[in-house]
Write a sequence for this structure.
């Protein structure tokens, strides 16, 4: 309880919408890593949607692989572009 009421600690941490506490630098680094790895993962999935053979009708990607690749590439690109602006 003594640490919760310490006024010197109040300036060390910031709160986003009352839920996430920590320094701004740490939160920014976390969001940057999340956007970078998420964008890379979506782009890898887009490449796999094109590269994986489309001969088996059991695969979900059998008929709509072009649309899947486009959607995954757009989401991945948006995440990587937002990484540059964070």
């Amino acid at each position: 309880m003594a640490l919760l009421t310490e006024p010197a600690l109040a300036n060390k941490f910031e709160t986003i919408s009352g839920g996430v506490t920590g320094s701004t630098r740490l939160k920014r680094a976390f969001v940057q890593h999340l956007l970078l790895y998420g964008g890379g993962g979506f782009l890898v999935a887009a490449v796999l949607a094109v590269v994986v053979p489309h001969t088996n009708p059991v695969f979900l990607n059998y008929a709509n692989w072009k649309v899947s690749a486009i959607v995954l590439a757009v989401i991945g690109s948006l995440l990587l572009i937002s990484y540059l602006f964070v």
About this structure: The longest helix spans residues 24-51. The chain has a mean pLDDT of 81.
